């Protein structure tokens, strides 16, 4: 059990750093770094045909007093000696003893069937239909397609937005070890429509897959796509030897900063309670976060990877309510170890309520086995939580891999 769990942990970078220098003094270093202009309302501009040659893109960051009052300080990451820290009391760093306790004493109850036939029955994968993804949507309508784990294709207001694309067989530094897919990707990258925005929430291997990004950013089909990432990730992406022509397509943001795309789409980097690490030596050298994406008629929220904290009420107050959202529901057991960094279904519903989401889908489950809960438990618990809170079961759904949905009262679309 120890060897298997160690392999899993090394591959996904999920174990917290072993030692914390408690004597470090954390300073609120990353306040209003750039001049910021923000809006919580949907953009007044209607979508028209995008320019075929160039795009008008700007990074903005000064507080609009109508949206973010001066008398309320927004939570910002703490930074000390080159590393970021969460500003909330709900965050807890883990010590080496905690890691060893998890690896040696917690039973793995994921119980994934070894039979591919049984897996196909319990967790079927539907091949994505390219024609469906290319169908235009009316104003005020959206389409969310779950591609597995935290990869979601969000389509609205004429834009195609892809979150945390991971299409590799393993989420690991190596493709011969580390967490392996229990379900295949439901499409090839060439099946995706031309992308406008790619969002990366943080640098863990199950969220930032260099092979997938290389293929996407080198594709002529996605030549107009921009990549929006947290602070510290642009240099990492450059070190991963991505195509050099993509350098101007990468936009690096602090929490509450945003990118305006063609005056028709606004992408906010918003907080999350998490951490980052790509190698042994770079713990928390890059920031992490979530995203609020605001179009002319639809608002979409992508929670990334997070534990629960009070910031979601702040996001909902200033940038919500949201028409649709993608919120993690899996990789949460054991709670004593995972709760600061991963929400469980009950906390996912709290986020859904805090941000004022009209409709949410559950992500971060059923693709890679990263923790110890039964692999089908997240959607089961989600339904129980919705029922116990007397919430409509259609307001927060889980999809099968490759399925698309238009919202709480629409039929899930496959063909």
UniProtKB/TrEMBL annotation:
Ranges where the Metallo-beta-lactamase domain occurs: 160-365
SUPFAM superfamilies associated with the record: Metallo-hydrolase/oxidoreductase (SSF56281)
One Pfam family cited in the UniProt record for this chain: Lactamase_B_2
CC terms in the record's Gene Ontology section: cytoplasm
Biological process terms in GO annotation: N-acylethanolamine metabolic process; N-acylphosphatidylethanolamine metabolic process
Superkingdom of the organism of origin: Eukaryota
GO molecular function, one term: N-acylphosphatidylethanolamine-specific phospholipase D activity
Annotated InterPro entries: Metallo-B-lactamas, RibonucZ/Hydroxyglut_hydro
PANTHER family for this protein: N-ACYL-PHOSPHATIDYLETHANOLAMINE-HYDROLYZING PHOSPHOLIPASE D (PTHR15032:SF4)
Protein's name according to its UniProt entry: Metallo-beta-lactamase domain-containing protein
Originating species: Galdieria partita
């Amino acid at each position: 059990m120890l060897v298997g769990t160690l392999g899993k942990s090394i591959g996904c970078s999920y174990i917290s750093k072993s030692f914390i220098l408690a004597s470090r003094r954390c300073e609120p270093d990353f306040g209003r770094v750039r001049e910021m202009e923000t809006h919580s309302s949907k953009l007044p501009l209607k979508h028209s045909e995008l320019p075929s040659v160039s795009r008008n893109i700007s990074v903005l960051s000064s507080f609009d007093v109508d949206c973010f009052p001066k008398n309320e300080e927004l939570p910002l990451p703490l930074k000390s000696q080159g590393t970021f820290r969460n500003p909330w009391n709900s965050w807890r760093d883990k010590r080496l003893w905690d890691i060893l306790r998890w690896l040696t004493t917690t039973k793995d109850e994921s119980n994934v069937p070894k039979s591919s036939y049984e897996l196909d029955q319990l967790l079927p994968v539907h091949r994505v239909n390219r024609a469906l993804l290319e169908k235009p949507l009316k104003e005020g309508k959206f389409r969310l397609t779950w591609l597995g784990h935290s990869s979601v294709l969000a389509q609205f207001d004429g834009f195609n937005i892809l979150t945390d694309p991971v299409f590799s067989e393993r989420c690991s530094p190596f493709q011969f070890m580390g967490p392996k897919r229990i379900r295949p990707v439901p499409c090839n990258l060439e099946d995706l429509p031309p992308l406008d925005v790619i969002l990366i929430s943080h640098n863990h291997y199950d969220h930032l897959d260099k092979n997938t990004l290389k293929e996407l950013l080198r594709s002529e089909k996605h030549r107009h796509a921009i990549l929006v990432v947290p602070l510290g990730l642009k240099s990492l992406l450059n070190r991963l030897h991505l195509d050099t022509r993509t350098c101007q397509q990468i936009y690096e943001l602090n929490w509450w900063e945003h990118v305006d795309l063609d005056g028709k789409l606004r992408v906010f980097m918003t907080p999350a309670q998490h951490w980052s690490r790509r190698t042994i030596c770079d713990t928390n050298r890059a920031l992490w976060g979530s995203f609020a994406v605001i179009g002319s008629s639809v608002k979409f929220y992508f929670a990334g990877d997070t534990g629960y904290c009070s910031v979601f009420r702040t996001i909902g107050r200033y940038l919500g309510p949201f028409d649709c959202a993608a919120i993690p529901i899996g990789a949460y057991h054991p709670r004593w170890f995972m709760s600061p960094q991963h929400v469980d279904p009950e906390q996912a519903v709290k986020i859904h309520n805090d941000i004022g989401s009209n409709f949410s889908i559950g992500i971060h489950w059923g693709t890679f086995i990263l923790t110890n809960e039964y692999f089908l438990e997240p959607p089961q618990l989600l339904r129980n939580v919705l029922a116990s809170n007397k919430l409509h079961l259609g307001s927060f759904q889980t999809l099968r891999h490759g399925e698309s949905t238009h919202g709480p009262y629409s039929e899930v679309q496959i063909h």
